[in-house]
Amino acid sequence: MARVIEVDQEIDYKPRDQIRAFHNRKERFAIIVAHRRFGKTVAAINDLIRSCFEIDRPNVRVAYIAPYLSQAKAVAWDYALEFTRDIPEIKVNHSELRIDFLNGARFRLFGADNYNAMRGLYFDAVVLDEMADFPASAWSNVIRPALADRRGSATFISTPKGKNEFWELWHEAQDDPNWFTAMLKASDTSILDQEELDEARRTMGDDRYEQEFECSFEAAIQGAFYAKEMKEATEDGRITRVPYDRAASVITAWDLGIGDSTAIWFAQYVAQEIRIIDYYENSGVGLDHYAKVLFDKEYHYEQHILPHDVQVKELGTGKSRLETLDALGIRNIEIAPKLAVEDGIQAARTMIPKCWFDADNCTRGIEALRQYRRDFDEKLKTWRGRPLHDWTSHGADAFRYLAVGYRRESDWGEPIRRNLRGIA
User: Fold this and answer.
1) Residue span of the structural domain in which 282 resides
2) Are residues 151 and 273 in the same domain?
3) Helix (H, G, I), strand (E, B) or coil at 327
4) Which of 190, 219, 242 is the last residue of a domain?
5) Can you give the CATH number for the domain in which 183 is found?
6) Cα-flanking dihedrals φ and ψ of residue 318, to 5°?
7) Rounded to an integer, what distance in angstroms lies between the CA atom of residue 176 and that of residue 179?
8) DSSP state string for 27-68
9) Cα(33)–Cα(18) distance, rounded to whole angstroms?
10) Percent of the chain with pLDDT over 90
11) Which tens digit of pLDDT belongs to each residue from 97-111?
12) How many whole angstroms separate alpha carbon 201 and alpha carbon 255?
């Protein structure tokens, strides 16, 4: 039966049986992992339209947000126009991708690629479509605060792309009474016939098919640089519990962000093994925060490997971050060689088979390595040589610096030692 919105009009939307529970939910938040061609975007658009009339507040604001504004327009705008065309006296603003209703409510499309454009706005309901492709800070820094004063609701819909922020939300939502959750696999919904699914598997290959149609968070990411090496690490049991050995020193490797995340790996070199015992990542904090993190862990540090740009002086202070770290008590700083990214990736590939990763302390870093991938040229339909810059870049870059920058203390030579000035 078609959904009825209280404007004396019937909206020509007939929800599939598998999505009715979502429309009837009472929870404030919802997360749906759904296979391709299920119709999750259509369901989400109609849920937002209903909110424009059922939320008992003045000037209701709802938003559909895709990874890119151009994507939001291509995927959702026609649906929004189709399902609101019979509502009387609507005002459509095509340039702003906005629909205003007679009761003062407003429906609008946004792109997470420019999430700062949503700062200062409020929302009563939002849908984050393909949230697995969102910038890491979009939800936590901008969209979530925009829901606060009106206690707005949020729906996350996506197919998986490894264990990123979308997976973390899915995992945490399972036992939270404020969350509605649903996983809709092609093998369960029967929306697509088996012949079509079999053909898709043959064409796409098992990994991509499992990700796109069977909602697998475990499937290998297409174009991932370290897919083979990380798969072997899993199969060999080298992603496990790796305790800190107090008899061995710790080496850290950093990727320093300014407006972006900073990532730090903690490794111990014991005989022929490289034991990756810890990983830390954060954003929006100063170097004093990271110095405190190091000291709080109470490891015995041998050296800290940092990228070459740590030596660049900042205009505001006239000091380099290298000097700032030294003033904070971070000693034995090693400047990683300035090599081509491709050479660093190859060095990391060579190093991973020697590595043992602590599964608990390094969860996010491990996923960064699994998902760090080539950029894809949509126009030429080919993989570019350069990496895609996304949330995985920080952990992967820091790991690359570890691969190219560490030299055992016994190899330093005397009397010259690498120190604050980066003497080679």
Assistant:
1) 227-411
2) no
3) helix
4) 190
5) 3.40.50.300
6) 75, 5
7) 6
8) -SEEEEEE-TTS-HHHHHHHHHHHHHHHS-SSS-EEEEEESS
9) 12
10) 64
11) 999 999 999 999 999
12) 38
